[in-house]
Please model this.
Amino acid sequence: MAKENSGYIGKDKNGKWFAQITIANNGKRKNVIRRAKDKAEARSILKLIKREIEDTGINFTEISQRGFNDLADFYETHYLKPACFIDERKISGLRDWKHVRAFLKIFREYFGKQKLKDITYSNLVSFRVLRLKTPTQYKKRQRSITTVNRELTYLRRIFNIAIQENWLEKNPFSCGEPLIKVSAERKRERILTIVEEAELLKACEHPQRRHLKPLLIALLDTGARKGEMLKLQWKDVDFEKRLITIQALNTKTLRKRQVAITKRLFEEFLRLWNESNKDLNSIVFGISDNVRKSFSSACKIAGIKEGGIEGLTLHVLRHSAATRLVKGQLPIQLVGRILGHQNPQTTYRYLSANDETLRQAATIFESLQNAEK
Model:
């Protein structure tokens, strides 16, 4: 039978407040100690410990000794698995579970040996700084704030699960200023000019890169995400109505939408269909998800910088499409619908102003000034 004393609060040798209760079970004694920022918080924590002991009994001691690796094991077993859908709705698992698995490995390396109760806000700050200073594996580039924010988002979620399971009383992320600051992320200002587009498509005329051209045209003329196009099946292409249906399961927001087919995209689709086995369930583009090598080669031949914030990536084509639609005076709300955005603010982040747009703005200002003379 487990017994515990009434506990007490006090200061350690460094002058830091704490609350402590000693639990006795089968002749063995165990001290449950938690830190506090002041005397009032120490008293509150002492009451909380007593209540937790009443709720969990002797298992409380076991819970207090659980480490981050125990939490990581639990998360991996119950949450880190491929997404399961019913009626186009995700009911469990993760769509990007492979990326999160890589994140979890990073979390284990840093926090694995620590007990959950000992992980503090300052530990999270140190982890964030370390990740920002760690270069990427690809070309050893500077790791972006956006990437680290994504890692921290999953780490915060893992700690929230610990709270749900009564392994923690408070998420260390909530013990200080927000560590995940979207406003600090650097927007990708790069968009593709018409001249650059012509050079890029010309570079794809080579037999080794011929498969890339229809994909690039599809991304430029629809504003779709790369993953949405690579998963596109022939049954989703309506040649008669010249419409593409992007199925909900292939979208980021799990919402089905349609986009129109331009003349040049229609010609590319028709050529691909004639070269295909005419199976409606087959993939339209029939190329690997990893097209980085051929895209990098095409950029090099076209004389365009590839990768990084200022360079060209496949996702920049989506930004370019959004900017062109707004420049063509399509209302921002409709641009968001075409891109598959649920929040208009997301669409605003996609819009970029290149040199041509800036010069156009200057021309407008000058015309107004001349009109006043």
Notes: Strands lie at 3-4, 8-11, 17-25, 28-36, 84-86, 89-92, 237-238, 243-246, 257-260. The radius of gyration is 28 Å. Residues 246 and 257 are 5 Å apart (CA to CA). The longest strand covers residues 17-25.
